[in-house]
Amino acid sequence: MKKITLLLLGSLIAQGASAHVTLDQPKANVGAYYKLTFKIGHGCEGSATTTVKVSIPESVSGAKPMPKAGWKIDTTILPLTTPYNSHGKTISQDVREVTWTGGPLPDAYYDEFSIQVKLPDIVGKQYFKVTQLCEKGRMDWVEIPTDGQSAKGLKSPAPVLEIMGKPEAEHHH
Predict the structure, then answer these.
(1) Is the pLDDT of residue 109 over 90?
(2) Does position 28 have pLDDT exceeding 50, yes or no?
(3) 77: domain range?
């Protein structure tokens, strides 16, 4: 009986550890062009995923989603609080949401949804709120920890990208 209980407990812990929407590469350098890849590890209580919507923080610019076979892409473009320059042009509105609809992605499988972006020149964490709609139900991965709080305690944490300073140039003799 102890073996069965331990196996069941281990299985539940493993499921809980992978139960969130995460970024494939959760660290990047300031100012980089970067491919954000969101990993969808399960559906909604056994139901297949039919929609994945990612909100783009205003400090992240130039979002371009990657097409996926069997999925339709929609983008929401909104005015920016602070325009920016890109290749000699002033950009006053930008993509703020990317939505993939279609699939479906069965609960027993995982998939990845990618967006190319330009990261800000500021070190820190950027949170990307994700809504996952399923044939039955939904999951909103939107919780952001408050200062000093760990994301581990959150039920539905938003995926986070840690933006770090550029690596120091190597010193050669």
Answers:
(1) yes
(2) yes
(3) 18-164
Q: State whether residue 38 is helix, strand or coil.
A: strand
Query: For the chain, how many structural domains are there in total?
Result: 1
Cβ atoms of 141 and 132 within 8 Å: the answer is: yes
- Is the four-CA dihedral 96, 101, 105, 106 of positive or negative sign? positive
Q: Closest Cα partner for 144 from 160, 123, 120?
A: 160
Q: How many angstroms separate the CA atoms of 154 and 18, rounded?
A: 14
Domain containing 76 — which CATH number? 2.60.40.2230
In the structure, what pLDDT confidence band is assigned to residue 168 with cuts at 50, 70 and 90?
low
Ramachandran region, residue 162 (left: φ > 0; alpha: ψ -120 to 50; beta: rest): beta
Go through 79-94 and write b for each residue having 16 or more CB atoms within 10 A of its CB, e for each that does not: eeeeebeeeeeeeeeb
Q: How far apart are CA 161 and CA 143, in angstroms?
A: 14
